[in-house]
Specification:
By secondary structure, this protein is α+β, with helices and mostly antiparallel strands. The protein has one domain: q2cbj1_9rhob like domain (Jelly Rolls, Sandwich). About 25% of the residues lie in helices and about 25% in strands. It has 6 helices and 11 strands. The strands form 2 sheets. A 7-stranded antiparallel beta sheet has the order 1-9-6-11-4-3-2.
């Protein structure tokens, strides 16, 4: 199976991505082929595979980002379709697309899933400097999620006023653009000093979870390159 829609990817130009305000971002629909999206959604990893990350202190005094997390590695006990999809994300087509949009040649990708329950949120923050950006794929649909419960990532504009090493609330921002987060939508954004983003507190029922899969585009420092080489050597 082919997962990515290359025509829809090609329709997103570097100029449009880099020119977005308040920092580079795009929220396309249908970046995954419809049959691929449904297959991946049906085969999402089961909750028992996840680790609990609740009430963990964040730097700069920001509120905890409570959720269940699952980090991907080659031996992850996820459905073969997910392994195949992640292989495609590491192929030349996706990497060249990221390279062109971000204007970089050296980077590496990591992958994880987040499932988030009722009452949790992602407080406004800027990502760590080791990241070039993130690509969030949303996996809730109208069959299991009501848009009124929240779940969209907010692109936040501080007008250049706020220190990224601070802990502002959502009310501190001039504007908040909420991404489309139902169905086959994804959100790609670049990390800059003002790349504030977050997710408001979820109001879903207790038996529902916000489900996302995230590709992290990481800066290729010498230290990171050495760590990846050692990890591959240990895996044989």
């Amino acid at each position: 199976m082919t997962y990515l829609d290359l025509d829809r990817m090609a329709a997103i130009t570097p100029a449009a991505f880099q020119g977005a305000q308040p920092y580079p971002w795009v929220n396309p629909d249908g970046l995954l082929r419809p049959d691929a999206y449904e297959t991946l959604r049906r085969q999402l990893p089961a909750l028992p595979l996840f680790s609990e990350r609740f009430e963990i202190r964040r730097r700069h005094g920001q509120r905890p980002h409570d959720r269940y997390t699952l980090e991907y590695h080659a031996g992850s006990k996820v459905h073969p379709e997910w392994h195949a999809f992640i292989d495609e994300l590491q192929s030349e087509n996706y990497r060249r697309w990221i390279s062109d949009l971000f204007g970089v040649r050296r980077f590496f990708l990591t992958f994880h899933w987040h499932y988030t329950p009722q009452g949790c949120s992602v407080s406004p923050h800027c990502d760590a400097t080791r990241k070039l950006g993130s690509h969030i794929f949303y996996f809730n649909t109208e069959d299991d999620w009501d848009a009124a419960w929240g779940g969209g990532t907010l692109i936040l504009d501080d007008g250049g006023r706020l220190d990224p090493r601070s802990a502002p609330g959502f009310a501190a921002f001039d504007t908040a653009i909420e991404s489309e987060a139902l169905g086959n939508h994804s959100l790609l954004f670049g990390r800059r000093g003002n790349s504030w983003h977050g997710v408001r507190e979820l109001t879903c029922p207790p038996d529902r979870l916000r489900k996302v899969f995230i590709v992290v585009i990481n800066r290729m420092s010498v230290h990171a390159y050495a760590k990846r080489w050692i990890a591959r050597w240990r895996m044989g």
